[in-house]
Amino acid sequence: FSDWDVLLEKYVNLDTTDGIQLNTVNYGKLQSDPVFSQLLNGLKSFSPSQLLTHEEKLAFWINVYNVFAAKMVIDNYPLESIIDVGSLFKSVWKYKAGVIGGRGYTLHEIEHKILRKMGDPRIHAAIVCASISCPDLSTEVFKPERLNEQLDFQMRGFLANPGKGMRVDSNSKRVFLSSIFDWFKEDFEPLGGVRKFIQSYVSPKDEQVLNNPGLSFSYMKYNWGVNDSSR
């Protein structure tokens, strides 16, 4: 994924969109960069059977998801939201997003049939469906040898963002979380549930708030606008 590393460095920048701070992507320029086509062509001939360790598989499929989500935007560029690609009868997640080793994959298959089944809920802070309320797209590829550190970094960064990850109102004893933690709450159950899980990734001050038994939780409205720097 060295090509993806180069592209991330060139086209991903910290920005503010709709009042939310996030890493945006310059899809217009990414679309015309031959390195992106080179990356996609390389994946077409790569066999996932070459991946041996859990870390290799997890890092690979996270990177693939992010590449294919970007490809979905580019294939339909310009657009306001990735979900606009879908129709009444078929969501964007179930369209073929790209090819690996001669086989087509959808974003739904990569997320639900491969990544979620690998048992690490930190993926939800690493895979990015090209939307404003998604976790920030990492500015570096995920690597097997650094994966644990990278996933921790992504989860901490996501929860530290009050615009889309977590916002604490200590006065009203209410915590506002990304809807991701609601949609995928079952993935966090083996680790004690969402509340216990996130305590390891927040500031000491917020951790203290989360220990309050009278705390109530709400979920933020998800902004599906595309994370495009030209918005």
Can you give a write-up of this model?
With 231 residues, the chain is an alpha+beta fold. Helix content is 39%, strand content 14%. It contains ten helices and seven strands. The chain has helices spanning 2-11, 27-31, 34-44, 54-75, 107-115, 147-159, 180-183, 185-188, 194-198, 204-210, and strands at residues 12-17, 20-25, 96-100, 103-106, 166-169, 174-177, 216-219. The strands form three sheets. The chain has a three-stranded mixed beta sheet. A two-stranded antiparallel ribbon has the order 1-2. A two-stranded antiparallel sheet has the order 3-4. Strand 5 and strand 6 form a beta hairpin. Helix 1 (2-11) packs antiparallel against helix 3 (34-44) and helix 4 runs antiparallel to helix 5 (107-115). The radius of gyration is 18 Å and the shape is globular. The model has no long low-confidence stretch (mean pLDDT 95).
Cα-atom radius of gyration: 18 Å
Could you report the average pLDDT, rounded to the nearest whole number?
95
For the biggest β-sheet, the strand order reads 5-6-7
Gross geometry? globular
Straight-line distance between termini: 27 Å
Q: Strand tally, please?
A: 7
Low-pLDDT runs: none
Quick overview:
This protein has helices at residues 2-11, 27-31, 34-44, 54-75, 107-115, 147-159, 180-183, 185-188, 194-198, 204-210, and strands spanning 12-17, 20-25, 96-100, 103-106, 166-169, 174-177, 216-219. It is an alpha+beta fold and 231 residues long.
